[in-house]
Amino acid sequence: MTLQKYILPLFVGSNLFGQTDVGLFPKFDFGFTHSMFTSMSFQSAKPMLLTNKESHTQPKKTKLTETELGFGLGLFLWMPLNEGVVFKPKAEINFSTTCLKQAPAIFATSFDLSVSHGFAIALKPADKNGIIYLARDMSCYLTSKQPYLLLGPKINLRKFDSGYLHKGFQNELGFGFFIGYGINYEFHGTSFAPEIIYNITSTAQNKINDSKKMIHNITLAINFF
Length: 225
Known about the structure:
- The chain contains 1 helix and 10 strands.
- It is mostly beta strands.
- The strands form 2 sheets. It has an 8-stranded antiparallel barrel. It has a two-stranded antiparallel sheet with strand order 5-6.
- The protein is elongated, with a radius of gyration of 22 Å.
């Protein structure tokens, strides 16, 4: 078992313009998020050696090497910088099950801590007459409805269970970038915002083919603030 220490300095700076009438900081809200996600890792298989009798060449194949399924709970800050951009930093804990597709397959549970600095960019002005259609002849009237694009960097620290570590694997520190789509539904002062997010993360631990492992993640999240 290898014990590694991570020292990760984070520096965050912001310049805010045109909001001197609201004091030092703009108005912000704290929110709660719940998410479910799945992720996959791929590797390019090495081409097989061919005999002299074979005249054709065998193309490279893409092989799925690792899958993950889990859920997360977190807190975030919803801070409008202007009418079209919102700063959304988030801290989240995730619980997941990982399957490493070897022979035989290796299963592990993990506890993740992730921190992201996202920006929500409005795709169009808020609809002040928004409606959610629940079912036939049933609808809910909103204060406003606004779709947005979500993007930013993300840092993730994954701690595996002891059984996985005893097999020679390591905990993973990953750096990535995410992009997503969400809709902010406001109900008389309370907002509900579902999101779908794609995240790509690179980590040097538990390498594939002696290269950095790339993790592709799809997340469905529900935000309340």
